[in-house]
Amino acid sequence: MTETAAPTTVVAAEDAADGEAADWGPLSSLPGNPMMWILILGELAVFGAMFIGFAVARALDPATFDASQAQLDRLLGGVNTMVLVTSGWLVAVAVRRRVSGRSHRAAMLGAMALGGVFLAIKAVEYGDKIGRGLTLETNSFFQLYYLLTGFHAMHVAAGIIILGIVTWWDSLENLETGAAFWHMVDLIWVLLYPIVYLLR
């Protein structure tokens, strides 16, 4: 038994040294680098806690939240939803093109450009609110509005940088890793938009 076990042990040790034997559990089957998925799970937990906080604050003061929510531009928020979802679709197209050996950079550049459009629309929206005196100090709704949407906008900006990096350092794993982050950004906005802008 010792003679047959020894070669297996040696092979396992060599695999571990090469970094091929790392077991990330369920994360190993996901596309991209497992470390990105750990980051994504952490970010989803943070946003989840913020959504719960928003719901509790609304329950404690529904009149203020309803009146303040009426000051938001649902149309701009809806346009931004379409912009970000389209950007996510372009990233998915880029990954499929990369897998099939076709050029994917145009799709990635389009996704990054739409990310920039999202931020520009958000800046217009912020400018309008601040111009009307609706700031962080207005009430608890606008404190949470700026916190949630601002934190998300930071993720959009970071996502654009990540997409640029994985487009430049071209590998399928890099592209899938960047795509995973960008889809998280999409998902959070798809949840954030109705919670903050629409639900009463």
Sequence-ordered SSE layout with sheet pairings:
Layout: H1 2-18, H2 34-60, H3 62-69, H4 74-99, H5 105-131, H6 140-168, H7 172-198
Helix pairs in contact: 2-3, 2-6, 2-7, 4-5, 4-7, 5-6, 6-7
Task: Give an overview of the whole structure.
With 200 residues, the protein is mostly helical. It has helices at residues 2-18, 34-60, 62-69, 74-99, 105-131, 140-168, 172-198. The relative contact order is 0.15. The model is unreliable at 1-21 (pLDDT under 50).
List keywords for this structure.
single chain; globular; mainly alpha; 80% helix; 200 residues; 7 helices
Q: Provide the gyration radius in Å.
A: 22 Å
Q: Are there runs of 5+ residues with pLDDT below 50, and where?
A: 1-21
Principal-axes shape call:
globular
**Helix segment count?**
7
Overall average pLDDT: 85
Would you list the SSEs in sequence order as H and E?
HHHHHHH
Mind describing the biggest β-sheet?
Answer: none
How would you classify the helix and strand content by structural class? mainly alpha
Distance between the termini: 69 Å
Quick one: how many beta strands?
Answer: 0
Helix content: over 70%
* Portion in beta strands: under 5%
